[in-house]
Amino acid sequence: MAFRGTFDHTLDAKNRLTVPAKFRAALAEGVVLVRGVEPCLAVWPVGDYTIQTDTALAGLNPFSPEARELKRIFFGSAFDTELDAAGRVMLPAKFNEHAGLGREVVIAGMGECLEVWDRGAWASHDADLAARAADLTAALGRPG
């Protein structure tokens, strides 16, 4: 399943995120929460996260400093959890701090995963993305 679209949500008093209903089946086998590179959280299906990290680490010398650093990023900043019966996932406080999340959040589809952003931070980031879309595609060697 490709995760697409943006959805406004509100975290409850216990910092639980209600996952949009259309994505719950894809996350039913387990969820990996990951601190994003940007100030956001990523929500991955457990199997897809495993494939993604295995692919990124394939062929690297596991004893090299760079491979060890990548492992710290991939596994040390990840948290395994599950959806509850109501389709919610608890967001650990440490992760919320990293992403600067308030109660009002945006869930944004990223294809393989979902991202969770503070609503104000998302509005600014999204506006910047729209303004830079042509430059981004050109920088990647793709026609705009």
CATH superfamily: Transcriptional regulator MraZ domain
Radius of gyration: 16 Å
CATH architectural designation: 3-Layer(aba) Sandwich
| Spatial sequence of strands, sheet with the most strands | 1-7-8-4-3-5
Task: Describe what this molecule looks like in 3D.
The protein has 144 residues and is an alpha+beta fold. The chain has one domain: Transcriptional regulator MraZ domain (Chemotaxis protein chec). It is 36% helix and 25% strand. It has four helices and eight strands, in the order ββββααββαββα. It has helices spanning 46-57, 65-76, 93-99, 119-139, and strands spanning 6-10, 16-18, 31-35, 41-45, 78-81, 88-90, 104-109, 114-118. Strands 1-7-8-4-3-5 form a six-stranded antiparallel β-sheet. β7 and β8 form a beta hairpin. It is globular and about 45 Å long. The relative contact order is 0.22.
